[in-house]
Amino acid sequence: MDASFTPEQDEIRRTLRELLRQRLGPGEPRTAVDTPAGYDPALWTALAEQLGLPGLALPEAYGGVGCSVTELALACEEAGRALCPSPLLGTAVLAAPLIAALGTEAQRAELLPRLASGALTATLAVPGTALATALALTGTNGGDWAGGGRAGGVQARRVQGGWRLYGQADQVLDGHSAGLLVAAAHTGGFARSRTLLFLVPGDAAGVVRVRQTALDATRSQARLQLREAEAQLLGEESGRDVLAALAAVGAGAAAVLACEAVGAADRALEQTVEYVKQREQFGRAIGSFQAVKHRLADVYVGVQAARSAAYYAAWAVPHGERVGGLALAQALEALRTASAEGIQLHGGIGFTWEHQAHLYFKRAAGDELLFGPVHRLRAHAADTARLFETSERREVAV
Questions:
Q1: CATH of the domain at 344
Q2: What is the required cofactor set for this protein (predicted)?
Q3: Per-residue pLDDT, 147
């Protein structure tokens, strides 16, 4: 494994950081989240047209750039540094890979070029609050999370000429503004129970979208109610395994999210270091106190360790090694620590609404609510690796 970045990868990072520096100042994220879309459409257009960000990991045949998950993860690291509100996660990390993996050739040809250009945004909608389970991050996604429609999930039933969906999905990223919903639904009844994915236009009849107040305002979320909404099956009914495809997308999403969290943690630490060099107490900059140095040194070690794990996870995705959950756990822990120490060491101003420090802490807490607490991410990784099984139990399982 060559740990160094290619010139193209370095250029992606440099160009995106410069663009975000010019277009996304300290107060811009909060201004953007107050818009109806929850992000700045002009900035999204710039990210799509100047950098091709939505199609970075999509094949060139469908209008993408043809890069791997690694390049997308590096781009998201820069977006995480700036806490950039955008539909990138839902569109490029969750929805587009599912369409590319499961969609028919006609569906891919129709949707992927529009997603790659940024003209169409999309997101993944799963019943209830089961996003982390559906992506196999905190447990085995056996399909039970899809529910049974009125019982709290989303139910799909076949009608003449198509499908109808009924049920509710919560915590849907950018669900109030996405042009396309990739909705997971339960079908087949008790005897032939299974989970399928469906394509639902965001403005389709029977779709009720309500934007929710999220802990992390830079990640817009919505509650979706599907009231006999018309839907198109994604791919063929007897095609690839939907649950396996969701797990594969989850592995890539975890690596991308880990890099994004590392970017946010690095920026939180950077801001804190800048501040302790300026703030004085007893006639000295507080950054000169040994106790402060030790605390920041611990944060630095945690961020660097998380960065190494995140980079490896991003590299491992196209090689078939799924270590994203562990990397995400380490990155979220590093971000939580870096942002919490940042608030403490900023003193009184760190607790104010006007300062940015609390936004990074909310990103850490919000991501744990969406994609799984750190301890559950690690527990599932340990269960998958059968880390705590005795040799006797392993022989029985085999």
A1: 1.20.140.10
A2: FAD
A3: 64
